[in-house]
TrEMBL record:
Protein name in UniProt: DUF4352 domain-containing protein
Composition-biased stretches (Pro residues): 62-74
Organism: Agrococcus casei LMG 22410
Superkingdom of source: Bacteria
Keyword Signal: yes
Gene3D superfamilies xrefs: 2.60.40.1240
Keyword Zinc recorded: no
Amino acid sequence: MNPMTKSRTRGSVRLGALLVAVCSTGLLAACLATPPTTPTDPSIPVASDSAPPVFSNLDDPPSTPGPSTPPVPTDAPGTVDLGDTVTMHTSHGSTWEVTVTGVIDDDDMAVISYGNDIPEGERSVTIELRIENVGAIESHPYYDMMLGYQPENGPMFDQNSGPSYGDYSNDLGYVSSIAPGQTFTGHMSVYVPVNSPEGNAVISPDGRKTFYVWE
């Protein structure tokens, strides 16, 4: 056998083995380098501190943020029971006392009765809640917080992913703003995939950095 041919063959084998090793290592790194993450609602920009509302009737957000220090004691993020009240301070400087009183999953009949069409492949979930502005600035919860529903082991669906329905006084999407000392009692709704499991009401006051969960 020609020595040059033999040398090239060995070099090709070594090169092939090296390429296989590199590819295998690259595939392994690709599998291991990215930690598991919870899918996010694509309508929420990652860089934003909160979900930008899509409701045209809302008042403009405050021109200046509220105080960084809440005027009243707040509760640590975590999991609470339906009916429990928590006080949270948002990254925009507003402070809210929130009670989630119930979750209706699914609520298609009520949503349809007010003239909404349920998108194909989805169902509606209604979150019943009471929100009091206990802070120093007038604002709207949709500007300052992400309010939503998270099916078990699934992504969150926020205020931008659902319908408004009901009377103008009891749907959070119809309320223009809430002044200090004022209270809203009513509901908000979101759409979730029709085959997703039941889940929990979730509120984040700081752009998905911390969460309050009602089970």
